[in-house]
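Following up on my earlier thread - several people asked me to post the actual chain instead of describing it. Fair enough. Here it is, all 165 residues.
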Amino acid sequence: MRIVGVVFLVFLFLSCEPGLTVPPEVEPGFGGIVFFEKGTWPPQDSLFNLWVFASQIYPLDSLKVFEGLFADPPRIYLYPAIDRNLPLFVDSTSYAFALPPANYLYVGVLQRFASEITVRSLRVVGLYGTPDNPPLPIPVVVSGSQFIDGIDIRVNFHKPPPQPF
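Reply from S.P.:
Thanks for posting it. Predicted structure:
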């Protein structure tokens, strides 16, 4: 009878869930795929930078763009980084944008098309938004240790969305 009891206890022990374990750490943010419309890429000399951006500010004006980018902490974030680019001349690229928890009211793809960095050298070329014409931005809410997939953005360099600034 003791052997049956020991076997039963061993069976129970091995079949139990780990219990109260700490969930795996997830860095907050969002990700998806940027799709580039075929045949719409501009000449290489007008592609100084290409970023996914997430802005806690909307609507934007020229003053808010630079305040948002260079504030501490920033209110407008760039992916992959201000000194790096998304891949150029591809059909699509996936991205994973680590961000602090917040409401991101305006998400899209930003092109810098001139050598100087001014508001006049930037334009939004893709928007995470509604299918309306013109599209309206869809906010992305990142909370806690949540990573949101499926924030896909379509870019057509010949038909950019309305410019916010």
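The chain has a mean pLDDT of 88. That should answer part of your original question.
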